[in-house]
Specification:
heterodimer, A: alpha+beta, Alpha-Beta Plaits, 2 domains, two-stranded antiparallel sheet, 8 strands, globular, B: Substrate Binding Domain Of Dnak, Chain:A, Domain 2, Rossmann fold, 4 domains, six-stranded parallel sheet
Amino acid sequence: MKTVFVNPERCIGCKQCQIACAVEHSQSKALYQAVFEEPIPRPRVLVAPGLYLDTSFPNKCRHCDPAPCMTVCPTGAISRDMSMGIVLVDEQKCIACAMCAMVCPFDVITFYTMWTKLAAIKCDHCIERQSRGEIPACVEACKTGALVFGDINELVKSARTKLAQSLSVAVIEMDSETARIPAHVEAWRSMGEAVSTIGVEE
Amino acid sequence: MANKKDLSIQRSVDPATQYMLRIAEEQNIETAWDRLEAQQPQCGYGELGLCCRHCNMGPCRIDPFDETGPQKGVCGATADTMVARGLLRAIAAGAAAHSDHGRDIAHTFLLTAEGKSGGYEIKDETKLMALAKEYDIKTNKRSKEEIALDLAHAIHNEFGNQTGPIRFTRRAPEKRVALWEELGIDPRGVDREIVECMHRTHIGVDHDYVHIILHGLRTSISDGWGGSMIATELSDVLFGTPQPIKSMANLGVLSKDMVNIVAHGHEPTLSEMIVAASQDPELVKLSKEKGAEGINVVGMCCTGNEILMRHGIPIAGNFLQQELAIITGAVEAVIVDVQCIMPALPDLASCYHTEIISTSPKAKFPGATHIEFNEEGALDIAKQIVQKAVENYPDRDPDRVNIPNEKTEALVGFSVEAIVDALGGTLDPLLDAIKSGAIRGIAGVVGCNNPKVRHDYGHLKLVEELIKNNVLVLNTGCNAIACAKAGLMLPEAAEKAGEGLKGVCKALGVPPVLHMGSCVDISRILVAAAAIANALGVDISDLPVAGAAPEWMSEKAVSIGTYVVSSGIYTVLGTVPQVLGSPNVTELLTAGAEGVIGATFAVEPDPEKAAALMIQRIDEKRKGLGI
């Protein structure tokens, strides 16, 4: 199974994945035109801040199987593309009841007005790009390796450390030898923790 | 191999550049094009101007796609404020670069007037007297040194002028000056406006995008009609006003058998002395002892334009060819001062025998040899630098020398004075040709190279379209070098022009594309536009003229574009400025400005469409003038 694997310790919060995602889901597929489009294209990967300053996590649909959202959708708007295992939303069938959002373990389903009606919007795993043999736009945009694309087992194997499975707290506690990030980035992040905790009352 | 060839063709239209890119690929040498590829995709926030790093509550970004995302910076700055502030800082940096160049020339001029400079002299007394008159300096029964000293002090004061006006701004038509005054954008001094840009864009100062941009116009005017014009005028006094001269352009000007020295950067104070030092008999003799057939100085970028215009020193190429010159393996030294010099050069040079010699007290490059230049010991220092290059000749590896064959003849050196001379001492023949329609209009085409655009394609396609439609092209900088390489600066290039322009060129024996100099010499285009407007009794914004920067990349180009528009000239940009994140700022620059300043920007990456926009503008203006 191919997936977008997230290495949160490498995310610097630049949000380039968000921009690339929105552009990929625009009509023009070009930034300078996309910002003027109606409806405005929306990002489906969202970088959420971690516990401390300078920690963040690019969050997106994990394309679960079985997918809770698909199970609860009353109109059959959510389906799975069997060839690639991608969970897709049919905006026309969506009645914006938000059941999918309630059961989503990752809170990655948002609602936007598309043309005339409100609809659930989420990551489609760049199905169009993948069918052309390209990697998802968010992964292509990521300059730090926070987002990587490939076979899940291979990715997990190569990233099998405590770090890769934990979020901001663990990132701060990692010693620099196992963190595999440059010392100056480490120092920067520890400053982020200091700035956001010093002087704060319990 | 087929693929490699394709890549080089995609990257440039210039055969010499394509050849060198293939060599670079064979030798696994990285160039700016490869680095651009490594940067892809570039940051959308930055491209849209929606990122602000002006204070440490940030960096802040505004989400262009999701109104539930941040729509204001921490301080509350909106997209309009952020984009306008970013633009103002770019204008400040560009104006600072040009004007500091002007200051350096003014400094050399002052030292020369004081008799303290080592090797400089006043070469154009006519211009000295004209400038003295413009500055109300007494010339009667005074020596040229006395006059020069007064002029030098007067011009120095323009930088610190607090109240304005800057004298050269009064070369603009009265209507234009009155408009600047009415809008409150008549600059008060060169340095003051730049400092105020930095103040206004500090956290918590100026937040109204219209107000911010109006100051941008004021700052840019202090560049075009101030710092840049000072650089041009005093360079002419010190080194001579350019007159038509033939030379050669492209990498083929590098010599297989001579010591090759590339003078790269911007200020003629250095390159003039390098040219002089390279003719020193002792050094020429030394070069022969080292096995070379002599010393071959060639230019690169705008300092190359300066010595090309005044001495006919061949020019090796424009901005994107600086790395390629080193990859020829035939360059003993690249001598640099300031602006547009890639910090990539020393690393690249370490793959060859080439020495990168930095000279400016303002600019050092890790990995380069620094031999600091000053005016007092100018010629001696220049000789020391040239000697270092000569002594490097034996380290050249002849097996690694790959000089492309391409070099093209060009007739250059068209200062305003030279154009008036070519016209027989008056502008009238030009005005008549414009009125009759033989010349449909005039375009100023300028600016850089940018690897986002196929090298030289934007420049050449646009210029060819313009001349084909009887638009006379005045150009400077990297556009001029592109046109020189492509043979558009030969009188025979008139064959590529429309019938009307062809006739005029043939009658005068000039090319349809006139090389007016370096990027500070865009001030010459302003002077020409003002002279034409004054002769017709109209404002510059009434003239059938247009500007373009098809491959621009530098902050200097942002300032240039802004002062050209502020002067009333419609300007088409070939690459997208970092402003589209604010629809309001975009609208102001591309439409609203028309009602304020009588001109706008347009963005059009396709050079054929850009030419069509310019011609449409020219035709509208012709109609307005009733011609």
